[in-house]
Every structure is written in structure tokens, then in C-alpha cells.
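re: ur question from the group chat, yeah i did fold both. here u go
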Amino acid sequence: MKIRNTLLAGCLLFMTTSFAQESPSFIKDSLETYVQHALKNWQIPGLAVCVVKDGKVVVMKGFGVKEMGAADKVDENTLFMIGSNTKAFTATALAMLATDKKLSLDDHVIKWLPDFKLYDPWVTKEASIRDLLSHRLGFATFQGDFMFWDSDLTAAEVREKLGRIKPLYSYRSRWGYSNASFLTAGDIIPKVTGHSWAAFLKDSLFTPLGMNNTLALAKDIHTAANKATGHTVQQGVLKKTYYGRLDNLAPATSISSSINDMSHWVMALLNDGKYNNTQVIPTEARTQTWSSNSIISNVSARFNKAHFLTYGLGWFLHDHNSRKIVWHTGGANGFVSSVTLVPEENLGIIVLTNTDSNNFYENLRDEILDAYLGLPYHNYSQEGITASEKGEQEDKQWLQEKRDTIAMKPATTLPVPAYAGNYQDSVYGKMTIALENGKLIARFEHHKGRFATLEALGGNRFLATFSEPEYGIKEWPFTTSNGKVKSVTMSADYVEYTTYEFYKK
């Protein structure tokens, strides 16, 4: 199972009760065994975990290795890409500017970005900074992300193309997670401060919080000395992957950090914004980010009662027996992570992993949280493995059925060469399909080196297998008329749920 922004899979809710100051037995006696067992079963090369309680670090430990096949072990300063856990930093930075009266979170976006445009001109005029930070512009979750994620588009080009996407829903009618919206919010910071987003975060948050190893931009992890390598799993086989080119979405997803640095962030947030007796984050700024702005759903949990799930500014929020849980997950190519806060219990949990094919980063969080809350042990990891294996078996069966169909060499509506040619999506741009060594290969204008191999399933259906496992294997239907190909509906896994319609030129 590939996970980038695991907001949909990660909505398990927890009931809280009061608990003793002493660390629970799971933390003292069982944590290491639990993690080591999971690393093997989940095929996770390396992991780092930190628990903060009452202003003190209870656990800070690295497990496993930075890269499969190597001996270099993960430690408390090893950098992992934290993906969408970047969003809380961006939202906090803007809330700090609002506290300083440099802007208002309810300012219209066009006040600061006159070139800002959305599909609907009225929404362009009305959209606020708060709308950007709480995912309520009307886009479906991840809409447009195949186009943006790890592409050669600049940040300016991402914003321009975002303005041409027709949202699936109406303005403020429902919550829909949008990375490009957070990019847009981050682009307001230079307009207000005269400093880049990355420089402002370093000066206002990283340096005063002692996050000295944290990198704002994805490009900088390549030259970092102590860094983890990302991994993924393809058809049961663990493979190294590459660092994502994510700086065109930087305010949404580009930060790399360690559990040591992230512990400073968590301790400050749980201490009314203070770190080393210095008020780094104003109380009002922290309060703004932890206040519900978007209703996501009424929810239920596997074991414990819960009532709602909302989104603040860069944070998910939910309730448990009158307790607030503040959390986010994040994913980048080869990495997934979680940050969870229980403010009323002064508890923080950080989990960083270097494969994007695990749910253990959430399972471990859940187990630690339950232990502190005095709840029964559920072995979430084994539950997760069982569910993952079931999903993998279903995927394997689906793929085998497709392979069996391909092996039968079913007739296509038109001769296979007729599907080759130049295609255009009105927002994405160009895709070319060409016969290469007897196979149809689809290549994309803004994703150099990425391609999909197309195999006939009969009629106008083809199985598209991407060259990079993160993008999966999908069925693409073509439309034909009067002996000619009109279009193809393109889709990919992992990065986006919506589709693109490429028309043959």
C-alpha cells in the first residue's frame, strides 16, 4: 500500500483518559521488540520515534538502517522527508504574521497575489488565506496533484495551472485536500516579509527552536550528510526510490527533519509556543492553527468513541471524551511520517519512516497513545499487516486477471498503431504515445523520464504500467469514432484520484 498524504486512511480516533506520569509498561518494556518485529514484517529499512511528555523527552530512538543493504544506522539526527507535516509550519508562519498584524488570515488572496486566479472568477475574488490553509476551495482531495507532484513545473506554473482546473465541488461546500493551495498560501509570505518562504521559516521557526539540521527545501537533502534513503514496495519487493522534486510545492510538502529537531517543534507547541523560555510561537498563532475551520466528517473508530473530524490550519483535529487530538501525517516519495499532539495531556508522538509502503507509522503512534491513555493493547501493527496482505492479495488477483487477458492477445477496436500519436489535456499539456520495441509507451511533457507501458485488454481498454511503482498500474479506456482515436482517460495511483482526458491531436 503506497501512502503519500495518509489523511484518508489515517482517521482512526482514540478515547482519552487520565493516566499516571510514569511511562507505561509498553514504552518501558515492549517498544523495542514491537518495533523490531514490525520492521521485518512491514519491510521497513529504518524508523525513528520520539515521545514527549510533560515537556520532557521520554523516548528518542532510531531503529534499522538509513538505506537497505547498508550498515549505516538511523539515529536521532537522521533526516527524513516529512511530506505534508510541512503544512503545519507554513500555517503557523502565516498565523504568526497575522498575530503581528502584518496580514489577516481572512484577507482575500488577491490582496497579496494579484495574479491569483481560480476557475470561477467570483471565487478568485472571494478566496481568503484561511480558505487556502483549510482546504475549502472546492477541489477534490489531491485534484491536480499528478500534474504538480514531482514534475518540472515551477511554482508559478503550478499556480497558473491550478487556476485552470475546474473544481469538482462548489466553493466552501466541502473539504478537499489541496497541496497547490498550500503552495499558494506560502507564496504570500515573501509578499508580506520580503523573504522567501524557506528563509522566513528558518529565521522565525527553525533557528529559534534549535532545529539546526532541518531543511526547508527538498533539493537540499541530496547533500545532507546524515539522511535516510526513501524506499517503496513493488509487488512484494522492497526497492530504493528517489528523492521527490517537490520544491514547486514546497510550502505543502518539502521539509526534511529528524526526530531530535521535530521534538523541539512538538515541545514548543505543547508549551504555549515557548522553547527554552522564549516565546517563539505566539499563543494566538498556535490557537488559530488548532481551531476547526473545515468539517470533514462524522466519524467512528474501531475501538473508541469519537464524534467528528475537522481540519484547522495545517492540522487535523478530532475529539475523544472531551480531549482534543491534533495531528497530521505526511508522505513524500519513499517516506511516510506522523506527528500527533494531545495538548491537554501534554503528550506528543513523532514517527518517521523511510518507506512509503507501510501503515506502521500510524500503528506505532496508535499503540503508544493507547498505552499512555491506559487503553487495552490491540496490536495495531498485526491488524495493519493483515489488512495490507488482504489488499495486496486482492491487487495481485486483479492484476493476474489483467495479465491473463493480455496473454490471450484480445482484439483491439483499432489496430494497435492507431493508438499512437500526440495527445493533449487542456490543463496538463502534452502526452505522447509511441510504439517502442513493439510496445505502446506513454510519455508526459512535465514528467521527464516517467512513462507508462500500455498493453491491450481488448476493445479500447489498455493496462498502463508506470515505470515508477509509486504511480501504480491502471486501466486506461480510449474512445474512438469513425475509425479514429478521439481521447484517452488517464489515471494514476498514489498521487491523485481524479482523471485526465487527453485528446488526440
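okk and heres the other one u asked abt
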Amino acid sequence: MSSAPLLEVEWDGERLLYHGASGETHFLNATGARVVERLREGDADLDELLAALDPESLGIAPELLRDQLDALLARLDELGIVIGTTTA
């Protein structure tokens, strides 16, 4: 996770993040919110994040979720919300 302050509002499993360093607000769906929650618990690689998301409960094929998660992590890194992301 980034050390920049993040202010959050959550409802119905979705989340708005205000990123203090950039002054931007970002919307995360339930999956994105779960990824951010998991990363706050500590570092995780792509496989650990996939396990935390449980593709079957989301009704998404694991390989499709992997691609979506890879794109999400790249975007969160680009926005400065998470840092040091690497993908497998």
C-alpha cells in the first residue's frame, strides 16, 4: 500500500477512495475494495490475492479473474494507491 493518506467511504461493499497525495477520488467495486483490504493486511502476490477473492464465489473463471486482477493492480500502482506491485 502507498503511504499517502487515503480517506474512504464504503457502502454495499463498494468504496470511494480519496487519495490525499493526488487530490483525486476513485471508485472501487466490491472486488477492488477487497483487493485494497487484503493489501492493507500485508504484502500479497497475485496468487494470494486470487485466493482472497475466491473466483468461484464471484462467478468468474480463474484465468479471467487473474487477467482482471493484473490490470487492476497495474492501475492502482499507476494511481499511487498501491506501490511496488509486480505480477506473475
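fwiw on the second one: The chain has a mean pLDDT of 82. The radius of gyration is 13 Å. idk if thats what u expected
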